[in-house]
Amino acid sequence: MDEKIIEIVWTKKASDTFYSIINYLKEEWTEKEVQNFIRETNSLILKLSQHPEIGRPSQKRKNTRIYILNKHTTLTYHFGSRKNKITILLFWNQKRNPKDFIY
Fold this sequence. Notes:
Structural class: alpha+beta
Strand order of the largest sheet: 1-5-4-3-2
CATH topology: YaeB-like fold
Low-confidence stretches: none
CATH superfamily: RelE-like
Shape: globular
Order of helices and strands: EHHEEEE
CATH class: Alpha Beta
Helix content: 25-40%
Strand content: 25-35%
Number of domains: 1
Number of helices: 2
Oligomer: single chain
CATH architecture: 2-Layer Sandwich
């Protein structure tokens, strides 16, 4: 795919779950881990803008993909190949109950 994605949109749930992880890291870990998480996220978003199909396809929803950001967190996003748009849906702490994984 030679085209670049022209737009990356975050849902409210994506923003809420991103900042929830940031707050957890601030409370339980050090600033180093917070900065690493932010850097990993920014790096992934850049990769997605160039290669939107790098995440594994979701078995639950069409045009939805899941990417393992690190051993603790996955990122769920929507990408329809006909549109130049990625919608970030959710950041998920993999230690949470999978039954609660709703996107």
